[in-house]
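Hi all, posting the design record for the shared folder.

TITLE: backbone redesign
STEP: 1 of 1
STRUCTURE INPUT:
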């Protein structure tokens, strides 16, 4: 690969490629520098520490997986949103083999607070997107939500089901769609 990286984004692009090739093994600064064709010091010019590099690389992968270029950031209904999210998780599993399992396990360790914060930021964004779709879906029953069961609770449930499916590498959204239909329509 050995390209010369001249920007933070180019280094992150190289990190994504390394994550793809390594099928989920961890990154190290020397390896990234070598793949970028730069010195270790150059990598540290862009990232304060290995943890900062790894955290930014993980965030970059999540952003690649859930970019909304083919969507206009809006979904007409929750069912299409669920289908899209499962399709993106399947894409992520193909593009970055082993990433989901490694990522969840590596940031469960102590001392990985930056990575956890980046992961939670991405996940929070996705839950907010689900909430927005739930609030704007004209097909949802008017009595589907109340004070004891809110759109936020449903979004959290849907997202939890998505994460559980990704850990099992099960990208069929049929069961989750059925839950959404029976609960909301």
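Okay, here is what came back for every position:
SEQUENCE:
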């Amino acid at each position: 690969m050995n390209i010369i990286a001249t920007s933070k984004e180019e280094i992150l692009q190289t990190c994504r490629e390394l994550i793809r090739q390594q099928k989920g093994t961890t990154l190290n600064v020397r390896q990234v520098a070598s793949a970028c064709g730069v010195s270790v010091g150059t990598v540290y010019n862009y990232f304060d520490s290995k943890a900062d590099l790894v955290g930014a690389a993980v965030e970059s992968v999540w952003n690649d997986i859930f970019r909304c270029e083919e969507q206009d950031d809006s979904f007409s209904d929750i069912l299409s949103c669920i289908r899209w999210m499962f399709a993106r998780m399947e894409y992520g599993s193909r593009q970055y083999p082993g990433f989901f399992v490694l990522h969840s396990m590596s940031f469960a360790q102590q001392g990985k607070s930056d990575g956890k914060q980046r992961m939670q930021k991405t996940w929070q964004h996705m839950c907010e997107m689900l909430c927005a779709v739930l609030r704007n879906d004209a097909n949802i029953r008017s009595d589907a939500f109340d004070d004891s069961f809110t759109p936020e609770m449903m979004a959290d449930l849907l997202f939890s089901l998505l994460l559980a499916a990704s850990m099992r590498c099960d990208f069929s959204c049929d069961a989750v769609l059925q839950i959404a239909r029976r609960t909301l329509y």
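COMMENT: The mean pLDDT is 85.
Let me know if anyone wants the other runs.
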